[in-house]
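Sample pair:
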Amino acid sequence: MNANILVPLLAAAVQSGTPILYATLGEILTEKSGVLNLGVEGIMMVGALAGFLASMYTGNPVVGFIAGGIFGALIAGIHGLVCLVFQGNQVVSGLALTILGTNLANYLGTPHVGHSAPGFGVFPVPYLSGIPIVGPVFFKLDMLVYVSYAMPFAVWFFLQYTRWGLALRAVGENPEAGSAAGLNVATYRWAGILAGGFLVGLGGAYLSLAYTHLWTNGLSAGRGWIAVALVIFAFWKPGRAVLGAYLFGGVMAFQLRLQATGTNLPSSLLLMLPYGLTVLVLVLASWKVKGGDAPAVLGVNYEPPE
C-alpha cells in the first residue's frame, strides 16, 4: 500500500483507538477488583457530555477532560451502590447503567447538538514527529493520545508492584482470604469501580474534546461495548489492550475512509465491521485460553461476615 495512504490510516487508527484504550483500561481496573461493569457505554456517554459542557462553559479543554473523568466516576458510583451496598445483580445493574447513561446524555445534550467546544488539536512532538512513518503515526497527534501512551504501563505497574494494586487483585481473586488478611474488600472494590469509571469517563471526554470537537447524540457509537469485549481479548492485561484498541481503531477508521471514497458497499455493512470483528476476536480468544487471566470471582458479590 502507498505510504501516502498507509500513514494517515495508521495515524487515524491510533486516534480512533485512544478512547477505546482509556475505556478498556478502566474496565480492567474494575474487573480486577472482582466487579463486572457492563455500563461502560453509558459511562462514556456521560463523560463525553460532561467534558464537552465543562470545556464549553470554562473555555478550558483540560478542565473538560478532567470533568469527564469525574462524572464518569460518579455515574460508575451508581453501579457500586447497587452491587456493593444493596448486593444487586452486577450484570443487570451494568445494563441498566448503560441505558441510563446513554439516554441521560442524549437528553441533556440535545440542545447542544452541532455545537462546538474548545478542544485538543494536533501537537507535533519536536524531533520525534519528524521520524519517517513513525513520527506522523504516533507523534503528530493531540496531547491526550500522548497521555494514553503512558496509561497501560501505569495500570500494569499499579496492579503488579504497588500495595494497593496487589490488594485490589487479591479481593478479585479471593475476597474471603483478603478479608482474613485484614483487607477491607468493599473499600478496594469501591476503589476499582470509581478509578475504572474515571478512566472510562476520560475515554468519553476524548470523543467530544479531541476526536470530534463537537457534540452529537450517540457519540460513543458502541465503543463502550467494544471496550468490554477487549478486556477479554486482552486477557485482562493492560499491554495487550493497546494492541486491541488500535486494531479496532484501525477497523473503524478504515470503514469511515471507505464510506468517504464512495464505495458501492452498503453503508450498513461497513458500519458493522468493528462489531463483527469484536465477535470474531472473542471467539478466537476463547479458543486460545480458557478464562485467561480473569479474576476468579468476577461478577460475584461478596457479603462480609456478620
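The chain has 13 helices and no strands.
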